[in-house]
């Protein structure tokens, strides 16, 4: 198993995450897709960090985690708020804004 | 293991950011400890004073920096140079006028934000909160924190700082978008869309960062440029990485095809927030694009021009044609903002020397008119059967005949619309002129021709609104009648500032253009 | 004083701003301030004029630098004023006639609640027009050009509670836009070719031959398009008649002294460009000759006194454009006719306003008749202007128009015959329609009933109480009538106006070129035709009874009544698409959908619909759009790299 | 020279054995008496059906706590690298981390004052 495999894994995870965002109607699941994308980025960052022999990538990974956490909180707050108002978290359902 | 050397931090250079971020944090404490009766006053004062103070600081830094004082800060992560300071100044100006609109109340004491953000729309709890006169004063610290992110953005000299700034400016805006007092369901939907798409695009941005890091072994923009010029192979990674990073930024400016959130969010978000975010976010993101293109891209030696051309053309055309068929004033303005993202891109598409100053001037002109136009939107309200003022009258047909009933307000709106349309003697005209000249200078003649045609077509739908205000009579329709309310003192001040700025920059732009021309040099 | 010439624009502008900003607080004295501002501008103009007069004729061109407007790299635009005999002639005309119209409006608008706002717009109009003629570059001229358009839009639509008037205002706006496009494109071409749009640079470049013939022709034709739009020449003439919807002083201001003359000004100002391109110059002359006949025909057919006058304006401007298109021989005469026309046409309009005022705002000439007995002053002054416009000596129109007709006969080949013939016929027709108007209004039998008189129940005649207008209205008309009487003679004294304009229009040796016919023959023929026209009109409208409703008339008459179907043509070519982009689309989606279904919606709407479909409200498709964008961008970059 | 990770492997094996052994042993030899009290949620968590609170939905408080937890828990991630490099970072590190902790305290104070930490 070489470092390249990690990169491939990261790419696969990123694709799965993006596919989740594109296909899931449930806001929470779509959001989980985004989180998966962020974490695949972390994996790539750490791997590249290893390849280049620097710590930059790992440091970035820490920041990404923290930012992702903040994003989770804001996202969940919005989703919960919508759920309480509409009893659904489908991203298709609330389509009043369009055209 | 190398020994750790503490980075030298030039606090003076960071002071504008610190003032804003610090005030935001103080604002959180105010929300926690100041009694409810005086909380709002304190918050409003803080939110208005802080940008002014920061503006003064930026002016001071300007005097230090222009004339050769450019430098990189904190181990090269931030850059303090002319474009960065100019962008910060412009963002702070938008913050002053934008916050003033946010803080304003209607004559009946109603403010723009929900009494209790957490309360479900239409619930008994919300009704109780409304009766109790609760106010969600957290909007001001949130706006300040977002502003802090925007101020970091133009200075960001490496991709990590850029990413963090991107998130810091976005997260509070997601929340603010959900806070509209009326039409809360729309507001929620706007926030959800903005959030999901924003998170999605920042994930794309981050993956781009990872790829660029993998390609060059560094995340600092100047290093990236150098590495790209020297590294052989791995082109694919660099190309994809660069495109992804650019995507994240173009998303924020709302350029086609990354624009889809713009109309929905601009329509759903509370109007004062829309005005502020349309003007300030766009400026901040464009400032970041500037640095990315002017510092990193030349080293790449790639032709990023075709991509920028395509995006600019698509934005101008789609923004214009879509705006023509809209029936909602906020959506119309949103699509016009998409078109304006295209026009602004024209200025830097050929990476000419005048590009940055032209772009910044364009953004200043556009932003003043935007904040002003959305401020006018907050004032045109529906009335219920009893004549009480209710929600904003955003359907275009409700604006018919406004000019006859409220000549001054309609004239102000007309001024902003004319500026959008780029009619001479308004800031918008000068902005378009310098932007197009900058593009033509770089040899992008065909693009300039397209831009001129697009701006002529765009003028139609601005004129359409003007015609509607002055020459149509209100139609019989099922929609409630609409009328404008008296602006509060703060909104009035904001409108006067925006209108004056639009006029003065149209009639006598020379001083500002000269200032910006001094600011065109990036530190590497 | 020349250094202070910016006051010319600043005074009325400041007054307009003050009147608009103060709002109702200024209602009591707003109109007086408006008059003072116009008069102040006239005084400044006079002082500048006297100073320039005191200078030797070769030093009479001044460029007053104001400030650097848009510095953008190598291309920069300065704001400056051009003070020379041409611009000063316009300044004096605009401010003098403008002031009289302001005074007249005090009386005319006395009962209008929004009189202050009206004066603000009038001042704005004067300021914009002054900026237009004083600008030292096409860019600044364009600012004034747009300002005039905007102000006229506001003034024509002043009574916008009347939907028809509002539509007329919009029509004027849209048609003017078409012309403006020409001006913009001309500026773009100049910018691209020489990097400057200041008159000095452009003239220098054209003289030096820096532009190819094709370029000059293109610029010339585009400038002409602008001029045609503003001056209501064929094919953009249709808005003028509808623009009569505005208050009558506005019609006077727009038609006589200001807006419509802008096109003539533009052509004369750009004379070097037109001289460098014979093609463009020929087109100018052709348009002028055609419009002078077209306008005259329309004027003959209209029963509405103001619309008939509008046709006459079109026709008279046609004379000026024709003169300007003749080349160096005609410039000075074009301006000369413009000045005298400014006086007598303003007099005619204000007289018409006075008549309308007396007849309960009715504009239908068929309900007038025999008014000379009750409106003596108006009759006399209108009569003076009538004689002037027909070119009866010694009234001012004779001096200016006769010169144009003579000049039209100078040249070689078919041109002198065609242009001269058109000008000659035009003179006869002018005499006919003006006499028709004069006799219909003031002579013949009264086709109205004095209020209070006993009337048979089946009498179709309207009840009126005609009366002479107040002094504040008649005095300006009298002044204008005096101008119509003596100005032409005064300005020809000692080669007056042609010599004065020479630094701008260039020297032309009139003795070196001869008309294809002897001058006395032309003059006599003209006068005979004029006499014929008057006689014909007298026979038909002065002596015989006139029916209250117009007879069906010949096909030609009917066509002329409908402005030769210009509306229908414009409707299809300009208004329909314009409306699609403006009004119809505003109202609800149904209209749009219907429009799309019927297939009449323009391409923009279709594209807009497509954009709407893309914007389906689903987050997932938005995300897909973003991703697709990324992929496309990546592919493009890869392709570029390869 | 064996792999240095072998002892860890051994330790993990022992731990697993102990844990599984304990559960297995209690399953085999323990008494099996069930009562209502034993089936109830223990110490924390929510009441199961049929008496679900709020029509079968979680109380909003759980979300609040969860969000608070996420923020504070994750922010602390910076403490780990800091602890590792503590001695190298010296005074700079201490000051920086104190500043960071002070900032973290601000939202805590906010939550506390606005009552987000009160269960009822």
Blueprint of the fold:
The complex is a heterotetramer of chains A (99), B (524), C (642) and D (120).
Chain A (H helix, E strand, L loop, with lengths): L2 H21 L3 H26 L3 H31 L13
Chain C lengths: L6 H16 L7 H24 L8 E11 L2 E9 L1 H24 L6 H20 L3 H19 L6 H32 L4 H9 L5 H18 L8 H4 L5 H10 L3 H9 L1 H6 L1 H24 L3 H21 L5 H28 L17 H15 L5 H13 L6 H28 L6 E2 L12 E2 L6 H22 L3 H10 L13 H25 L11 H7 L4 H16 L1 H4 L1 H11 L4 H12 L4 H23 L1
Parallel strand pairs in C: 3-4
Antiparallel strand pairs in C: 1-2
Helix pairs in contact in C: 1-2, 1-4, 2-3, 2-4, 3-4, 3-10, 3-15, 3-19, 4-5, 5-6, 6-8, 8-11, 8-13, 10-15, 11-14, 11-15, 13-14, 13-18, 13-22, 14-15, 14-17, 14-18, 15-16, 15-17, 15-19, 15-20, 16-18, 16-19, 17-18, 17-19, 18-21
Chain D lengths: L5 H24 L6 H4 L20 H16 L3 H6 L1 H28 L7
Can you offer a commentary on this structure?
With 99 residues, chain A is mainly alpha-helical. In chain A, 79% of the residues lie in helices and 0% in strands. Chain A has a single domain, classed as Orthogonal Bundle (Helix Hairpins), CATH 1.10.287. In chain A, α1 runs antiparallel to α2 and α2 packs antiparallel against α3. The mean pLDDT of chain A is 86. Among the domains of chain C are: 246 residues, no CATH class; 55 residues, no CATH class. In chain C, strands 1-2 form a two-stranded antiparallel sheet. Chain D has 120 residues and is mainly alpha-helical. Classes of the chains: A mainly alpha (99), B mainly alpha (524), C mainly alpha (642), D mainly alpha (120). At the A-B interface, α1, α2 and α3 of A face α6, α7 and α10 of B.
Name a few traits of the molecule:
heterotetramer; B: 524 residues; mainly alpha; two-stranded antiparallel ribbon; D: 120 residues; 5 helices; 0% strand; flat
Low-confidence stretches of chain B: none
State the separation between the terminal residues of chain A, measured CA to CA: 50 Å
Shape of chain A: elongated
Gyration radius of chain A, in Å: 17 Å
Structural class of chain A: mainly alpha
- Kindly report the spatial arrangement of strands forming the biggest sheet of chain B: 4-3-5
Main β-sheet of chain B: number of strands, strand sense, barrel status?
3 strands, antiparallel
Sheet bearing the most strands of chain A, described? none
> Per CATH, which architecture of chain A?
Orthogonal Bundle
Protein name (chain D): NADH-quinone oxidoreductase subunit A
Catalytic activity (chain D): a quinone + NADH + 5 H(+)(in) = a quinol + NAD(+) + 4 H(+)(out)
Organism (chain D): Miniimonas arenae
Keywords (chain D): Cell membrane, Membrane, NAD, Oxidoreductase, Quinone, Translocase, Transmembrane, Transmembrane helix, Transport
């Amino acid at each position: 198993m070489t470092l390249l495999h990690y990169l491939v894994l990261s790419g696969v995870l990123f694709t799965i995450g993006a596919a989740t965002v594109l296909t899931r109607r449930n806001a929470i699941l779509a959001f989980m897709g985004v989180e998966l994308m962020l974490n695949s980025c972390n994996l790539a960052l750490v791997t590249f960090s290893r390849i280049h022999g620097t710590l930059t990538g790992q440091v970035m990974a820490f920041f990404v985690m923290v930012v992702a956490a903040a994003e989770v909180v804001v996202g969940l707050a919005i989703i919960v708020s919508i759920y309480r108002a509409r009893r659904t978290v489908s991203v298709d359902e609330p389509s009043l804004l369009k055209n | 293991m190398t020994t750790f050397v503490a980075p030298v931090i030039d606090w003076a250079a960071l002071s504008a950011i610190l003032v804003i971020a610090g005030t935001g944090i103080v604002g959180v404490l105010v929300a926690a400890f100041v009694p409810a009766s005086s909380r709002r006053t304190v918050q409003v004062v803080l939110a208005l004073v802080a940008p002014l103070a920061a503006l003064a600081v930026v002016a001071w830094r300007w005097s230090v920096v222009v004339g050769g004082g450019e430098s990189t800060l904190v181990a090269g992560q931030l850059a303090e140079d002319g474009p960065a300071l100019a962008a910060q100044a412009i963002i702070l100006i938008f913050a002053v006028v934008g916050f003033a609109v946010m803080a304003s109340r209607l004559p009946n004491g109603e403010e723009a934000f929900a009494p209790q953000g957490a309360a479900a729309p239409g619930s008994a709890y919300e009704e109780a909160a409304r009766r109790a006169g609760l106010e969600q004063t957290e909007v001001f610290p949130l706006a300040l924190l977002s502003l802090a992110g925007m101020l970091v953005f133009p200075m960001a000299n490496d991709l990590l700082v850029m990413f963090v700034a991107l998130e810091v400016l976005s997260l509070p805006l997601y929340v603010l978008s959900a806070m509209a007092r009326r039409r809360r369901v729309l507001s929620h939907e706007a926030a959800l869309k903005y959030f999901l798409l924003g998170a999605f695009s920042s994930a794309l941005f981050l993956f781009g960062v990872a790829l660029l890091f993998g390609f060059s072994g560094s995340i600092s923009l100047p290093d990236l440029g150098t590495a790209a010029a020297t590294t052989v192979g791995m082109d694919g990674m660099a190309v994809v990485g660069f495109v992804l990073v650019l995507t994240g930024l173009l998303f924020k400016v709302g350029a086609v095809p990354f624009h889809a959130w713009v109309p929905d969010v601009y329509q759903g978000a509370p109007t004062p927030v829309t005005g502020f975010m349309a003007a300030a976010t766009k400026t901040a993101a464009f400032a970041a694009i500037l640095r990315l293109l002017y510092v990193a891209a030349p080293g790449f030696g790639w032709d990023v021009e075709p991509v920028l051309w395509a995006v600019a053309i698509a934005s101008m055309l789609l923004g214009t044609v879509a705006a023509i068929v809209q029936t909602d004033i906020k959506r119309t303005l949103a699509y016009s903002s998409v078109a304006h993202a295209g026009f602004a891109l024209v200025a830097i598409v050929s990476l000419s020397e005048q590009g940055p100053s032209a772009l910044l001037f364009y953004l200043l002109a556009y932003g003043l008119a935007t904040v002003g136009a959305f401020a006018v939107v907050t004032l045109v309200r529906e009335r219920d059967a009893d004549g009480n003022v209710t929600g904003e009258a955003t359907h275009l047909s409700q604006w018919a005949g406004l000019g006859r009933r409220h000549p001054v307000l309609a004239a102000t709106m007309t001024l902003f619309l004319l500026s959008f349309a780029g009619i001479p003697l308004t800031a918008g005209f000068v902005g378009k002129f310098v932007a197009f000249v900058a593009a033509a200078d770089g040899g992008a003649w065909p693009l300039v021709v397209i831009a001129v045609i697009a701006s002529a077509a765009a003028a139609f739908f601005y004129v359409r609104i003007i015609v509607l205000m002055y020459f149509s009579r209100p139609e019989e329709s099922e929609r409630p009648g609409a009328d404008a309310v008296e602006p509060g003192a703060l909104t009035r001040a904001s409108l006067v500032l925006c209108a004056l700025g639009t006029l003065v920059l149209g009639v006598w732009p020379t001083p500002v253009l000269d200032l910006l021309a001094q600011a065109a040099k990036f530190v590497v | 004083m020349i250094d202070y010439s910016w006051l010319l624009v600043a005074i009325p502008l400041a007054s307009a701003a003050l009147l608009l900003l103060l709002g109702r607080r200024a209602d009591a004295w707003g109109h007086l301030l408006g008059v003072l501002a116009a008069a102040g501008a006239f005084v400044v103009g006079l002082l500048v004029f006297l100073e320039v007069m005191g200078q030797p004729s070769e030093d009479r061109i001044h460029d007053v630098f104001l400030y650097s407007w848009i510095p953008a790299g190598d291309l920069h635009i300065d704001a400056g004023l051009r003070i020379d005999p041409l611009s000063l002639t316009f300044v004096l005309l605009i401010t003098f006639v403008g002031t009289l119209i302001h005074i007249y409006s005090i009386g005319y608008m006395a009962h209008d609640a929004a009189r202050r706002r009206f004066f603000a717009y009038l001042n704005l109009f004067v300021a914009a027009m002054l900026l237009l003629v004083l600008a030292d570059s096409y860019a600044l001229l364009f600012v004034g050009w747009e300002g005039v358009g905007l102000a006229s839009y506001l003034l024509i639509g002043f009574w916008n509670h009347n939907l028809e008037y509002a539509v007329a205002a919009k029509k004027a706006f849209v048609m003017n836009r078409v012309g403006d496009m020409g001006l913009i494109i001309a500026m773009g071409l100049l910018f691209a070719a020489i990097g400057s749009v200041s008159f000095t640079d452009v003239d220098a470049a054209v003289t030096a031959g820096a532009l190819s013939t094709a370029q000059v022709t293109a610029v010339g034709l585009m400038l002409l398009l602008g001029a045609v739009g503003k001056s209501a020449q064929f094919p953009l003439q249709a808005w003028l008649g509808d623009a009569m919807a505005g208050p009558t002083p506005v019609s006077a201001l727009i038609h006589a002294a200001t807006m419509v003359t802008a096109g003539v000004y533009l052509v004369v100002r750009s004379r070097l460009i037109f001289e460098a391109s014979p093609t463009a110059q020929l087109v100018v002359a052709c348009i002028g000759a055609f419009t002078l006949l077209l306008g005259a025909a329309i004027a003959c057919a209209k029963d509405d006194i103001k619309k008939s006058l509008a046709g006459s304006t079109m026709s008279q401007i046609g004379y000026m454009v024709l003169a300007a298109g003749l080349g160096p021989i005609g410039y000075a005469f074009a301006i000369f006719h413009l000045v005298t026309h400014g006086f007598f046409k303003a007099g005619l309009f204000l007289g018409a306003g006075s008549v309308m005022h007396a007849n309960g705002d009715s504009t239908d000439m068929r309900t007038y008749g025999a008014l000379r007995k009750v409106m003596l002053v108006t009759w006399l002054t209108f009569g003076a202007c009538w004689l002037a416009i027909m070119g009866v000596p010694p009234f001012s129109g004779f001096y200016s128009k006769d010169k144009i007709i003579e000049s039209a006969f100078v040249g070689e080949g078919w041109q002198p015959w065609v242009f001269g013939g058109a000008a000659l016929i035009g003179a006869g027709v002018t005499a006919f329609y003006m006499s028709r108007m004069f006799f219909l209004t003031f002579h013949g039998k009264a086709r109205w009933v004095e209020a209070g008189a006993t009337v048979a129940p089946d009498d179709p005649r309207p009840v009126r109480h005609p009366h002479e207008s107040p002094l504040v209205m008649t005095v300006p008309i009298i002044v204008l009538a005096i101008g119509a009487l003596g100005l032409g003679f005064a300005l020809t004294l000692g080669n007056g106006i042609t010599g004065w304009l020479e630094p701008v229009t260039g020297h032309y040796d009139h003795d070196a070129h001869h008309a294809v016919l002897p001058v006395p023959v032309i003059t006599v023929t003209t006068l005979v035709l004029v006499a014929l026209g008057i006689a014909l009109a007298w026979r038909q409208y002065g002596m015989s009874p006139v029916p209250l409703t117009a007879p069906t008339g010949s096909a030609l008459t009917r066509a002329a009544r409908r402005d030769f179907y210009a509306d229908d043509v414009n409707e299809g070519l300009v208004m329909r698409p314009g409306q699609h982009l403006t009004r119809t689309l505003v109202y609800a989606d149904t209209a749009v959908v219907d429009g799309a279904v019927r297939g009449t919606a323009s391409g923009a709407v279709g594209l807009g619909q497509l954009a709407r479909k893309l914007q389906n409200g689903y987050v997932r498709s938005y995300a897909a759009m973003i991703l697709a964008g990324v992929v496309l961008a990546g592919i493009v970059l890869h392709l570029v790299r390869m | 020279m064996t792999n240095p990770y072998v002892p860890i492997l051994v330790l993990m094996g022992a731990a697993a054995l102990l844990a599984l052994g304990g559960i297995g042993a209690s399953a085999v030899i323990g008494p099996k008496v069930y009562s209502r009290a034993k089936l109830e949620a223990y110490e924390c968590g929510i009441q199961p059906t049929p008496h679900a609170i709020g029509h079968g939905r979680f109380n909003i408080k759980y979300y609040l706590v969860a969000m608070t937890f996420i923020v504070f828990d994750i922010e602390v991630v910076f403490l780990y690298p800091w602890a590792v490099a503590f001695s190298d970072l010296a005074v700079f590190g201490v000051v920086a981390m104190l500043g960071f902790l002070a900032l973290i305290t601000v939202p805590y104070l906010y939550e506390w004052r606005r009552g987000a930490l009160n269960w009822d």
